[in-house]
Amino acid sequence: MPLDFTAIDFETANGSAASACSVGMAKVRDGRVVDTAYWLIRPPLGHDEFLEWNVRIHGIMAVDVADAPLWSEQLSDLLEFTSGDHLVAHNAGFDTGVIAAACAASFQPVPAFDYLCSLQVARKTYHLDSYRLPVAAMAAGFEDFEHHNALADALACAAIIVHAAGRHGASTIAELSELSGSTIKTLSPKLSSAGTRG
User: Fold this and answer.
1) Is residue 196 one of the residues assigned to a domain?
2) 198 lies in a domain?
3) DSSP structure class, residue 86
4) How many angstroms separate the Cα of 126 from the Cα of each of 26, 70, 143, 180?
5) From CA 90, how far away is CA 81, in angstroms rounded?
6) What is each CA distance from 169 to 88, 139, 177, in whole angstroms?
7) Cα dihedral sign, 61-159-35-110
8) Residue 37's pLDDT band (boundaries 50, 70, 90)?
């Protein structure tokens, strides 16, 4: 089986995991990025305040998402793009927590995903002073990207996984999980608790 997965990254409007305001995704087939997607999201009512701290990080303001579809209107597009793939994210507990919390706040069923954390993989692969996304991506040869742009971060995450797979001699996500000692976890309706950004 080839190295197939979808890397995903969310930015949020505030401290609520349900406040997703953008998503970026990079679809990888046989170790190569073959498709990308990015869109803005209007957070659900009650989770839609844009805090100055968050705006300073990602540059997205309330006016930018005023005409964007709600999470509930875009979930089907997200599911279509990921199409049953393993998801990969850097600090994946945060991003899968966003999916769970945004679904709960939007009265949508939480989809089931298997996912692998590129932060965990990076810690098992590289010897770095920091494993933050820009540092780990640099170790994988992916440099000078717009950190906190959701698509750029998803591409950086994908680069880490592809590079780490090469380091470990893994040809699939399952092999990378086993060889690196990183756990494939599952997001499911019964196990959906919101994560926090680390």
Assistant:
1) no
2) no
3) P
4) 23, 38, 16, 11
5) 19
6) 18, 17, 11
7) negative
8) very high
Q: Where are the alpha helices (DSSP H) in the chain?
A: 52-58, 62-65, 71-82, 92-105, 118-125, 133-139, 150-168, 173-180
The CATH number of whichever domain residue 20 belongs to comes to: 3.30.420.10
* Residue 77 located in a structural domain: yes
Q: Could you give the number of structural domains in the chain?
A: 1
Q: What is the pTM of this model?
A: 0.94
* Residue 82: predicted pLDDT: 97
Residues in the chain: 198
Whole domain around residue 37: which residue ranges?
5-191
The structure tokens 């659900």 sit at 44
User: Is the residue at 49 inside a domain?
Assistant: yes
Which tokens hold the place of 2? 């080839």
Task: Return all residues near 167 (Cβ < 8 A) that are at least 6 apart.
Answer: 125
Q: For residue 198, give both structure tokens.
A: 């680390």
Q: Return the structure tokens found at 166.
A: 């090469």
Q: What would the two tokens of residue 7 be?
A: 């890397």
| Cα three-residue angle 90-32-68, rounded to 5 degrees | 55
Q: Does 87 score more than 70 pLDDT? A: yes
169 SS3 class: coil
Q: Going by C-beta distance under 8 Å and a sequence separation of 6 or more, which residues neighbour residue 66?
A: 42
